[in-house]
Specification:
The protein is about 30% helix and about 15% strand. It is built from three helices and four strands, in the order E-H-H-E-E-E-H.
Amino acid sequence: MKASNGAPLVSGKLVTGFTNTEEAAVGLTEIVPFLVEDMLKENGGHYSKVDDWQVYVQVDGLLVTGQNPASSAATATALLQLLK
């Protein structure tokens, strides 16, 4: 996605997402069209992560990202906090 100025939406933002090692653990590295961790970094995101399969959420303005499925509830909670 692109921001209104044409830059990648994640450029300069704190983000997280499925790690390369999590992708490898489920055997999809050669199947998916891109690795989320690499794509976020390549598009200027300030990517961070914790150990595989742990809960981790990043919030930067109105952008809320979660590292993996274990982060779903915490990501939803962070989004709800923004909506209050």
